[in-house]
Tripartite tricarboxylate transporter substrate binding protein (Comamonas piscis), 328 residues
Amino acid sequence: MMKQILQCTAVALTVGMASGAMAQGPATDYPGSKPVRMVVPFPPGGGTDILSRIIAQKLNEQNHWTVVADNRAGAGGTIGISEVAKAQPTGYDIVMGQKDNVVLGYYLYKGLPWNPAKDLTPIAHIAYSPVIIATAENSKYKTLSDVIAAAKADPGKITYGSPGNGTSIHIAGVLFEKAAGVKLTHVPYKGSNPALLDTLSGNVDLLVSSVPSAIGQIKAGKLRPLAVTSAKRSTSLPDVPTVAELGMKGFDVSTWYGLFGPKNLPTPIVSKLNTEVNKLLGMKEVQDAILAQGAEPQAMSSSDFDKFFHKDFQDAKAIVEASGATIQ
């Protein structure tokens, strides 16, 4: 009898320990010594890439983790999202998504093998950013009014570069054309940096970009900012007027950045990543680094980010339809 009792006790302890390990494992052990791949869906040098590397570097420094930024550009950022959407929900494949590819891309690219509302897990909101309209410092266009006047005089002649078809930047450009009553010619690139370089060289007249992607050349005096598209001025560029201030009342277009994982990502892993990212966003040095790139840091709980993301996804369909933007 005593032998049976001891055997039952041993089994119960084993089951209890196994259950505890299962409950605590993902939160306690993650990520351990295994590297975490943070997919960056755009080329090096753009706003998404810069913010990704700020977060990855600080996660490594503060937690002794190994988070590796992995650039997977193409198709307006949807290729990188696709890689993570089909990954196993282990927490070792995450992606720095944004309004462009996670939300707008779904309505613009036909036949995507994933639905963001069903196939991704929102982890942590990082920052938001206005879109900026700029031109080379040696351009003949000194103000946004100059651009509008020239575009009305010669519809379609003025060109603007963007990070690609279907991005929020492209949408901002289309909505600006509608609000200003002008016709511009859109030139899509595979990321912000190629569009920026062609603007500086004069191959396109204007750059429509996220502030993080353009602010370095603005501060260097090589790029002239004409306006930002958000409702209020950028903290990083307080002297640059908004499009609304220049006569298009109510104009408000911005983008946001956030971390996502595959669907069914365990809640303990989501919570751990969200907690550690929010700690970083509370650090002055991280806030300053993000602000220096022209973005505005903004922490959210994972549940708040989930609600924010799903509402934006639902609202995006009408925005895309109103813009008239299409993927060629």
User: Anything to note?
Assistant: The domain at 130-246 is CATH 3.40.190.10 (D-Maltodextrin-Binding Protein; domain 2).
